[in-house]
Target: Glycosyl transferase
Amino acid sequence: MLIRHLERMTDDTGLLEHAMGTIPRRKEGYTTDDNARALWACMEWMSHTAAEELQAWESLADIYLSFLLWAQNEDGTFHNNYAYDRTREKESPSDDCFGRSVWAAAAVWTCDHSHDRRLAAEQILDTSAKQALSLKYPRGWAYTLSAFASVLNARDCVSLLGERGEWLSRLQAREIVLQLQDRLLEQYRRESSPGWSWFEPELTYGNGVLPWALFNAYRISEREEVLDAAQASFRFLADRMSAPEGWIRPVGNERWGSPGYMSKWDQQPLEVMKLALAARESWRVQGGQDGPDIIRRCHDWFYGKNDCGVPLADETDGSCCDGLTAEGPNRNRGAESTLAYLLTEAIYTEVFHSSEALLEQVP
Model:
């Protein structure tokens, strides 16, 4: 069962951050980042899980959603790092943590049929809205605009809104999306150049969320300039993350990537998932086979079609190695890598298993 390792890593507080092999390391504590990713993964899998497994995903979702409610400060920001005894570790608020948490709450609000979970998600979104335009960094913008865009895209669903239409108007979601879209687009204009269709002077971490966000923004603004930037940056990233042999080669976090150099090691599962995420949104917005082909190659990376020719994921329990080095996999199976695998598998399942027509079209 894919949920087994996630259950192993989760206690009544939340999802633990690290593991030694598959054994949870309690002294490393918890992060809000991981609990937000875990909540998102639950929403993805609850959408296409058999009835006998649904309750297990719902039970985990309750824990992770409760964690986000606990971690959110009164000003809308989120505290990220917690020790095992539930005490807060010293830190400054993180834009990335904020964005991931808001995105997870939006996933609950738009995907979950539970009235109670939706109300909790609504409170998180409502409290976070006052901080949304104070964010300073592109990945925080990307997650946050995608969160509020997803809420707007669900606004025509009567079962979602009901008496909550007034709340949606007060949220000012459209203003948030358009302002953050413009910031991200300006970032792209400033940094891109011939041969470098990107938002920054380097390819660093979590890259796929940037074109993904512009695809989400395009659904709201319908500006061709936004779609053009989303397409160009997505294709550029997919090209840079493809080995000559055809398999996925994520930019390594050893030295990152620049116009004249791409680090090969250490490869992170998170990068593969983010590319699959952008590919799914590209497919949703404009169709075609590029998106599904990249999603399939991302999926295959976890099962051994990679630079070492070895699998990182274990489909019997849903765990995943923490990275791929020149010496082979990092055998520890922590929260981030496991969730990257589970989310990629969910994306693959949606695109390939939910459409017989697509399966016939893709070789």
